[in-house]
Amino acid sequence: MKKGIFKNPLRRWFWLFLGPVVAAFIIGFVWPFMQGIYLSFCKFKLISRTTWVGFENYGKAFSDPTFLHAFWYSALFAITSLIFINVLGFAAAYALTQGIKGSNLFRTVFFMPNLIGGIVLGYIWSMIFDGILSRYGTSILLESKYGFWGLIILMCWQQIGYMMIIYIAGLQSVPEDMLEAAKIDGATKTQTLFKVTIPNVMPSITICTFLSLTNGFKLFDQNLALTAGQPFIIQPGGTTVKTTEMLALNIYNTFYGSSSASQGVAQAKAVLFFILVAGLGLAQLAYTRKREVQQ
Amino acid sequence: MKKILALVLTLCMVFALCAASASADAKGSVYWLNFKPELDETAQQLAKMYTEKTGVEVKVVTAASGTYSQTLTSEMDKSSAPTMFIIGNQAGVKDWGEFAMDLTDTPIANELTTDAYNLYDEDGRLVSIGYCYECYGIIVNPDLIEKAGHSMDEIKNFDGLKAVAEDIHARAAELGFDAFSSSDMDGSSSWRFTGHMANLEYVYEERAAGAVWTECPATITGEFMPNFKNLYDLCINNSLTAPTDLATGGHDAENEFKTGKAAFFVNGSWEYAAVSGDVPNAVMIPYYCGVEGEEKAGLNCGTENCWAINDTVSDADKAATMDFMVWLVSDPEAAGLMVEQLGVLPYKSAPASANGFLKNAEEYTADGCYVMDWATNYQPNVDDYRAALVSALNQYNADQSDANWELVKTAFVDGWAVQYAAANG
């Protein structure tokens, strides 16, 4: 087998064809990633001048109450948005595969919010929410719960269309004969949906839940533009808790906002963040994969 | 085929090496990382003029508004790092002082007319040097004051200001204009209060202690918070916009002032060019806030515009940068353009300023009024400190209760100590 690869002159040149992609991957991903991990063990201002400090940064990251707050807040947000986006996305997809008039138009319109950048969306929605809330003498920046649900609404508005497209593809590949068989056997619409359709679109559900879970955790632009962590709880003694700050924004604020020696801590937080998101994503993938059926 | 490929690659490599060594010739080059977006156009023009005249290459990059520290952090890491950058306050000295060359007794330092805007590090090294200064206070449209039946002479202290502002606000519907323009709390406007108006508290603390700060104090007392509250309350409660609508902003305070919808506008001398076209006799008055003896207060004068030379670049580049800096403030044409944009240059051979607000500042000083220095430049971890203050002020604007003002005080006074500890811990 091994001999075969090297015998064939074309195969001898495989590295030349792989080369550009591998090089780009190393330059664009592997190398910065390794450097990021290295930096999380250093104290630095510029990445070309670093001092090794071992696990000190990780210690500081774990003992930072704002990081833990941001973690729980992100977790709550990710799970809530995952449920809303997927249920509503699936519902929209289901409705638009029933052959109603103008389905294509609806699909296009629902998908469009996804094409707008997060920062722009954040500012637009902050105006919309405040246009309503100011009638009641309040603002999205004054109550954490408004900030939370505001962000959920924004993310649903942006993401439902995208997930809907994936679900539509899944729904259209459900074998016609299975549905017909269910019909002949006298299954109700609800029974068909839960016993035939959903098990058959499990691959779509896997990918959509994976995407919305990781998106929820990684959210940055929308969070920055909509509330930027406001309102803060000003604690006696002057420390603050940024009630609507998510993990990525917390890392950014640590890197640029806080003390001059905090870049390393921010880097350590970023590594922990990666492990968390990757771990959760993989666990969720493994879990839903088990529920996929072979057609 | 292979041979040709190898040849082409080798040639590429040789050219790349030649190009790299050619750019690092003995003349040196200048890379100015500019901090003021409004100066960008002029700076690019000046760079071109200088290159045509001397052949020295000058590159100007302007960081987008509010992202200077991010841009500087990434640019300083590159092999062609900025040779000329901005260290604008003590926090900047702490972060970037070690990268700055000591400017003591250099040609540019010898051109200065005042030492007032220079920044020194702990060892007494002159790390950055003021290239312009600015002033802030309350911009007033005297025509509207008179239209409302008052005169500028009535406004000599807080009581006078309050009487006029409250009268105008009460009769706003009848007059067709209001007292203060909107004091939005979004990022594009909140600094006028959390950065600038907050300065009055720090300055009066300094004056009570009898000495200006030379480094960031670990704590502040908050003794003059009631005075900050006086002026702040006056601003938000006698304005075009209700205090409850300020959190997310969206009002254009400058435009409200320019179009004659508001008589007062809290801002600084850099607004002169923008407002003097529509309100040619606009004047700037001090922050009157009810402190004893404030009839003798002047404007808040200072700067965050201070040049530093990067100590880590080659000697040729440092020398080229120094020459360029001196040229900017001494060449008649170049200094003229700089003054036009920046208002005033504190250098011996720079032309005089035409900025009306800076003239106001000079008049106050000539009348024996005290200058309010920019103590606000010492705010520790300035972004975090101000963000907390904005959040507290938002709560207060929505409901002006004593409990909410306590939060503002906590963010203002205790927040200082917390951020000082974080920055120096």
In terms of topology, how is this protein built?
The complex is a heterodimer of chains A (295) and B (425).
Chain A: H1 2-7, H2 9-12, H3 14-39, E1 42-44, E2 50-52, H4 56-62, H5 65-95, H6 103-111, H7 118-133, H8 144-172, H9 176-184, H10 189-200, H11 202-218, H12 221-226, E3 232-234, E4 240-242, H13 247-256, H14 263-289
Antiparallel strand pairs in A: 1-2, 3-4
Helix pairs in contact in A: 4-14, 5-8, 5-11, 6-8, 8-11, 11-14, 13-14
Chain B: H1 2-23, E1 30-34, H2 40-54, E2 58-62, H3 68-75, E3 84-86, H4 90-96, H5 107-111, E4 119-120, E5 126-130, E6 134-140, H6 142-147, H7 158-170, H8 172-175, E7 178-180, H9 191-209, H10 225-237, H11 253-258, E8 262-268, H12 272-275, E9 283-285, E10 297-302, E11 306-309, H13 315-330, H14 332-342, H15 356-366, E12 370-373, H16 382-398, H17 402-424
Parallel strand pairs in B: 1-2, 7-8, 10-12
Antiparallel strand pairs in B: 3-11, 4-5, 5-11, 6-8, 6-9, 6-10
Helix pairs in contact in B: 9-10, 13-14, 16-17
Could you explain how this protein is built, in words?
The complex is a heterodimer of chains A (295) and B (425). Chain A is mainly alpha-helical. In chain A, 71% of the residues lie in helices and 4% in strands. Chain A has helices at 2-7, 9-12, 14-39, 56-62, 65-95, 103-111, 118-133, 144-172, 176-184, 189-200, 202-218, 221-226, 247-256, 263-289; strands spanning 42-44, 50-52, 232-234, 240-242. Chain A has a two-stranded antiparallel sheet with strand order 1-2. Chain A has a two-stranded antiparallel sheet with strand order 3-4. In chain A, helix 11 (202-218) runs antiparallel to helix 14 (263-289) and helix 13 runs antiparallel to helix 14. Chain A starts with a helix and ends in a 6-residue tail after the last helix. Chain B is of the alpha/beta class. Chain B has 17 helices and twelve strands. In chain B, strands 6, 7, 8, 9, 10 and 12 form a six-stranded mixed β-sheet that branches. A four-stranded antiparallel β-sheet of chain B has the order 3-11-5-4, with helices on both faces. In chain B, helix 2 (40-54) links the parallel strand 1 (30-34) and strand 2. The longest helix of chain B is centred in the last third of the chain and has 23 residues, at 402-424. Mean pLDDT of chain B is 88; it is low at 16-24. Classes of the chains: A mainly alpha (295), B alpha/beta (425).
